[in-house]
Design brief:
Elements (H helix, E strand, L loop, with lengths): L1 H14 L3 H18 L9 H11 L6 E7 L5 H17 L3 E6 L4 H16 L7 E6 L4 H9 L1 H4 L26 E6 L3 H10 L6 E5 L8 H5 L6 E3 H14 L11 H33 L1
Parallel strand pairs: 1-2, 1-4, 2-3, 4-5, 5-6
């Protein structure tokens, strides 16, 4: 009984550990994998592979609509996939149109373009365009599907579309080979319901980790052809793009890929604390 009582008391004490110590442990879980250069083997899931292969099948000079519907709060998960997608599209010589239903999205999309355009020799108005944000959600979907210029007569900088060489022959969703929506909110549902459901546009999505499970039914029904889920999905796409020769950087420079050991270690420790906390709670109730 003495040994069992000592173990029980130890578990109870562990369940009541000072939160400042917990914070220090989590900080160590973030810092140590980064300093040690820990690498994880990456297994690629079918939804991410489906999106990657669809981009691979696009002919050079094709158009893709890339909607950045996220804000700085979801950047850690969504910004890396935005970068990986644009790098892949630029390397394949695909023309990229960015138009958003989320007000903070256009400057984030432009930041990606600004970081990568010089690297791939891309010119604004010839290889990529940022149309900016338009309020209205489903109304925007319907309007763009019928007449792009009625909704976006000018780009993000106030330049008329007809003065941008790559936009002169673009009138609606029929002129783009695919739509990829990167979203941190409910905007994805409008793209599914209207762009795909009503106008039959070919659609893929990238969403935060907690949103991912909500969209597997649309993948199974064929309404979307690809799905990147959270940082893990972004790391998978980075890995595919790096192996395909589209991203020439070393893996320790890839945003999502190098973050996976940190995320995995932190999750394991948090789960461990949850288990210990519950064991200690029930032990204390039993002692009482």
């Amino acid at each position: 009984m003495g040994d069992q009582g000592a173990k029980r008391d130890l578990l109870i004490r562990l369940s009541r550990i000072d939160r400042r110590i917990l914070f220090l442990i989590i900080f160590a879980c973030v810092l140590l994998p980064l300093l040690a250069g820990v690498r994880l083997r990456m297994s690629v899931t079918a939804p991410v592979l489906g999106l990657y292969e669809a981009v691979e099948d696009l002919e050079p000079g094709s158009y893709v609509w890339l909607a950045a519907d996220y804000d700085p709060g979801s950047m850690p998960e969504l910004y890396p996939m935005n970068i990986a997608l644009v790098e892949h599209l630029f390397e394949k010589d695909i023309r990229v149109i960015s138009g958003s239903l989320w007000a903070p999205g256009p400057p984030l999309a432009q930041r990606v373009f600004d970081d990568l355009a010089a690297k791939y020799g891309k010119v604004y108005g010839e290889d990529y365009v940022n149309l900016g944000f338009k309020e209205g959600r489903e109304a925007v979907m319907v309007s763009v599907a019928e007449d792009l210029r009625r909704t976006f007569p000018e780009d993000y900088y106030g330049t008329t579309l007809d003065s941008l060489p790559m936009m002169r022959n673009i009138t609606n969703f029929d002129d783009v080979k695919a739509i990829i929506n990167i979203s941190g909110g409910s905007g994805t549902e409008y793209w599914i319901n209207y762009a795909n459901g009503r106008y039959n546009a070919k659609l893929a999505i990238g969403v935060t980790g907690v949103m991912t499970s909500d969209y597997y039914p649309f993948l199974q029904s064929g309404q979307i052809f690809g799905l990147i889920g959270g940082m893990k999905g972004a790391a998978e796409y980075e890995d595919l793009a790096e192996k395909g020769g589209y991203i020439s950087r070393e893996k320790d420079q890839l945003w999502a890929f190098k973050s996976m050991p940190i995320q995995t270690t932190t999750h394991v420790v948090v789960i461990l604390f949850i288990v210990l906390g519950n064991i200690g709670y029930f032990m204390s109730k039993r002692r009482k």
